[in-house]
Amino acid sequence: MTSCSNNGSVTRSSATPISAKKAHSYFGRAGVEFVDPRPAEIIAETTGKIPGARSISISDAEAGNLPPAFGDRTIHVVATCQAGPMASKLAEVFTRQGFPNVSWIEGGTQAWIDEGYEVIR
């Protein structure tokens, strides 16, 4: 079972760490895609997910198995997970895949919840 707690290490990356508040400022904007690498059962058991966030595993992203919306490499990708470590790893994968505008939420979806923002369970 794959989890994303805050006891993991954060990958150093060219992706930008952002606060949940900053991430929320991008929420619902055209050209922005939120992604979460956790399996559906882990999302349901933990924090839930940010509305509209796409579930894309790290292995699928590494293999280039991305939904059609990601054919446009100019989109802004915002990665999240439960607490941040998996999001930083996923963000790094997206930068290696050629996406120039990639961020990850410090504190993950839990930080999003702590700010009072909605999640889907």
From TrEMBL:
Protein's name according to its UniProt entry: Molybdopterin biosynthesis protein MoeB
Domain Rhodanese: start-end pairs: 28-121
Coiled coil: none
Top-level lineage group: Bacteria
InterPro entries: Rhodanese-like_dom, Rhodanese-like_dom_sf
SUPFAM superfamilies: Rhodanese/Cell cycle control phosphatase
Database matches in Gene3D superfamilies: Rhodanese-like domain (3.40.250.10)
